[in-house]
Structure formats: C-alpha cells, structure tokens
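Narrative of accomplishments. A recurring question from our advisory board has been how the design workflow behaves on a single, concrete structure rather than in aggregate. To address it, we present the structure tokens for one chain from the evaluation set, followed by the sequence designed for it. No filtering or post-editing was applied between the two.
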C-alpha cells in the first residue's frame, strides 16, 4: 500500500504501527487530512509480534498508567466495531477473562478450583493462586490486517518503505524529510516505536530502547482453554480455535530480533508445566518482536520540547508504549487527538511528557 503523489497533509505521522495508525485514524475521522509514513511495512514490527492481552488491571502496569489503561478498556469495543465497519474485516475479542497469578500476601478475591476449572480445565494450578479478571484479548494479526485498511478507507494515506529522516519548521509548516522526498504538514507526530530514539533529525533523542520479546504458538483442543493465564514465568493467550500464544521473554539486546531455540524451549517448558496437554504446532511458529521501552515503563505522549530548529507544539510524540501498545491504542489516539486540537484530554498527559527525561536527552 502506498500513498499517491501528493506531498501535503494536515498531519504527518512517522510510524505505521498500531499507535501511529490508531492516531491517524482518529485524526482522519475528525476531519484532518493525515499521511502515515512507515519505514518498512505497516503493522509488521511490535504490533505483529504482540500477544494481544487487554491487561487493564495487570499488577505490573505502572500506577501512573492506570487511568489511561481503563479509558482504553472502555473504548475498545466501539473502536473494534469502527475498524470492522471501515475495513470489512472481523476483529473479534478472542477471550473475555483472565486468570492473574497473585502472591501469598493477597488474601481476598482468590479464584476457586471450580472457577479455574470452568475457564481452564486442563490448568495445573497446584502451588499457584489466581484472581479472575474480566478483561479481553485480541489476536494482533486481526488488527494487523484490518487497521491499515480502516485508515485508508477513512481517507488516510499510508506510505510504506518511507523512512522519516528529519523535520524542520518552515514558516507555518513542518517540512518532513523522508526517503521518498519531502512532505509538508501543519503538524507532525513521532510514533516510531522502538525506533523513536534519534529517528528524526530536529527532535530530541528520546530514551526509548528496544526490548526484545520471543513467543511461540502451541495448541490444545479447541475450547479447552477459555481465558488468558498469567503465571510468574509465562503467559498463555488462547485464540479460541485451539491456538495458544505463549510468551514472552524480556531481553535488552538492541535491535537483534532473531528467534533463539534456547529461549523458545524455555517458554514451551514453562507452558507445559502449567498445561501439560499443550503441543507445539511446528518449529516455524516462533517469533520475536521489539517493544519500545522507556526507563519508567510509561509512554512518551505530548508535545515535543524545543529543538535546534525551533521545534514547537506542532511536533508531537506518541511512542514508548512498551508491552501495552495493543491495549493503549484507542485511548492514546483519543487523548492525543484532543491535545493536538487544543482541547483538554480526558486523561492528562503530564505523566507522559518528554520533559521528564530532559536530563537524558539531546537534540539531533
């Protein structure tokens, strides 16, 4: 999919992952003319490799992220319907419950054996305690197929194989220099994910780093596992048809994204300790992705700080969503679109401001 020869837009977005395309779709539906510029293929990096848990109440979520996560959870059903209507592709909720492992210090809300048996009859939960959470999951591959189509159907332009190299203020415009020539826009948003640090000349080098995650696909009888299971060393995400995504490693190894037998074997062993009947579906069904991590685990969202080219509030960040890009996409799109329109967002952006990293950043 590529854009046409026109080189102007109201908003230019660098990065065609779930955050960039979700923001682009929201802005396009609000009447802005949007072009999304993707260095490779849209939705083929962290979005494609993700697990798809909508883990609103995951205890590992930073407390400062909870309001944004809960907003996203509320927005998700209508957001999926909108994508389905525009793309004419289905993006169903694959599960609606999760079993979350809890520590010995928790005394209330513990799932009973009967409750566990109803959702995951094959689960070997001896020695572990779980809490039932009413939360959904999606198959990211459904979103990878549907979201770009929805954005284009709404009138957006998607230009793939188009790396953004730099931005510069030029009068009332932002000039965006790319591998396919120059685009002019009123506003620009850096949604480059793991590639956000130093990706765009003229903006700060954000402290966003790639965090590798490896996953494998296993299989059990369809309907045998009806919920997400999050245990201390592994999580299981059923797709509703017998497939179960098993993840995931956390590795700070730069941009190395290869699959390693030792890591995937560890995931398989941990999964089978939880559910012995799980089977591998083939050696090709393992993959890795690069999450965009930040030092405090929170996204970077809001206006860019001043750069050497006199950057102003017409340049924005929406990146660094780490393990929660799938979950946070609809809320990020809404609050960022509000902020870019000069409105008060439903969730304030101070906790996500790039200014919190001022001492760790420099300007290209």
């Amino acid at each position: 999919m590529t854009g046409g020869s026109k080189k102007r837009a109201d908003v230019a977005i660098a990065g065609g992952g779930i955050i960039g395309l979700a923001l682009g779709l929201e802005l396009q539906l609000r009447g802005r003319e949007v072009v999304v510029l993707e260095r490779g293929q849209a939705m083929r990096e962290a979005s494609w490799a993700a697990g798809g848990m909508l883990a609103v109440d995951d205890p590992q979520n930073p407390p400062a992220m909870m309001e944004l996560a809960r907003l996203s959870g509320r927005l998700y059903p209508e957001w999926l319907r909108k994508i389905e209507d525009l793309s004419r592709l289905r993006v169903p909720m694959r599960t609606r419950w999760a079993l979350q492992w809890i520590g010995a210090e928790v005394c209330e809300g513990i799932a009973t054996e009967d409750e566990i048996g109803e959702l995951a009859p094959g689960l070997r939960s001896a020695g572990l305690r779980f809490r039932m959470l009413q939360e959904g999951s999606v198959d990211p591959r459904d979103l990878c197929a549907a979201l770009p189509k929805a954005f284009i159907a709404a009138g957006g332009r998607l230009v793939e194989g188009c790396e953004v190299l730099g931005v510069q203020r030029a009068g009332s415009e932002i000039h965006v220099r790319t591998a396919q020539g120059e685009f002019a826009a009123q506003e620009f948003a850096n949604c480059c994910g793991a590639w956000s640090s130093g990706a765009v000349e003229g903006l700060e080098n954000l402290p966003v780093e790639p965090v590798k995650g490896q996953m494998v696909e296993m299989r059990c009888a369809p309907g045998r596992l009806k919920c997400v299971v999050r245990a201390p060393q592994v999580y299981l995400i059923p797709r509703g048809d017998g497939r179960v995504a098993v993840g995931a490693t956390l590795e700070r190894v730069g941009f190395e994204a290869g699959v390693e037998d030792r890591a995937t074997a560890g995931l398989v062993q941990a999964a089978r300790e939880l559910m012995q009947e799980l089977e591998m579906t083939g050696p090709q069904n393992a993959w890795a992705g690069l999450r965009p991590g930040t030092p405090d685990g929170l996204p970077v969202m809001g206006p860019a700080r001043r750069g050497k080219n006199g950057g102003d509030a017409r340049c924005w960040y929406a990146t660094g969503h780490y393990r929660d890009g799938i979950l946070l996409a609809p809320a990020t799109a809404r609050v960022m679109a509000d902020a870019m329109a000069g409105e008060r967002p439903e969730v304030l952006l101070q906790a996500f401001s790039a200014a919190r990293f001022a001492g760790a950043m420099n300007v290209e």
